[in-house]
């Protein structure tokens, strides 16, 4: 009859033994799994775990500041922040095809991570793989399911001769969260909605530009803030804004306006495989539309996505 406390104690011992006086690296995204893996391994080997946080510029509003604040300043992790926004935006210039965007972001991510890992050295690579990833991979017959390809630094372990450590491999998501609580990781990290590896790159339909990124980040933050204020954030599985590659006509004062359309998406789901669109109250949607159009320069119209999965996927690209 094991407890999460026993697990923690045992894992810390195991990791210490395995790593010895060596160094380990970990790609920290700020998502639940990599965060818990990072704090757990830090507890075992301290600063000999070097966490690499790649800021690809496609993160949610202020996330590039919040992640270092939580993990470096608050939890004391050894965190190496790589600011790579310009690199990613440059490679995404003129690209509109969703699969092409995903491929570019995934490739560039691995490239940046590899360059950084090479500089840092280290013999071990810590990954936040959890039990559902293991099952998913087995089911898909591939080493890693396609949907997770971005988070996995594919090919890197062999090329760099790194040994993989997966301390969460046999835990379910709720156990990972409990372990995270035990390790003192704040709730805003542990209970945050899932976020795709390619980030806002696949929530901007069409070409990704600085201006579109600003519009989407601001609109998304307003929607999420409203969900939190109203108690709906915890009631939906995932919610976010999407910026369409479409401008429509409106009126601002007495003037004609011609601005972008924002789509809001909120779904109820168990693991993301299927999903129902969330029946958010009309008043909440009304308030979201007003706030977004009033406060976000460049956003002129708001629509709500009422498609479930299937037939639609949760993300728009
Ligand atoms: P879809 O859009 O396929 O999304 O219905 C299902 C869930 O997976 C997330 N998602 C991703 N997660 N890398 C990720 O780590 C990706 O490339 C990716 N694409 C989709 C999506 O946010 C949803 O939670």
Q: Could you list some keywords that capture this structure?
A:
317 residues; Rossmann fold; GMP Synthetase, Chain A, domain 3; 2 domains; 11 helices; binds xanthosine-5'-monophosphate; GMP synthase activity; purine biosynthesis
Q: In what order do the strands lie side by side in the largest sheet?
A: 3-2-1-4-5
- Give the fraction of residues assigned to helices: 40-55%
Given this structure, which CATH class of the largest domain is correct?
A: Alpha Beta
CATH topology (level 3) name of the largest domain = Rossmann fold
Structural class: alpha/beta
Strand element count: 9
Structural domain count: 2
Q: How many helical stretches?
A: 11
Largest sheet: 5 strands, parallel
Please give the radius of gyration in angstroms: 20 Å
- In the CATH classification, which architecture of the largest domain applies? 3-Layer(aba) Sandwich
Which regions contain 5 or more consecutive residues with pLDDT less than 50?
Answer: none
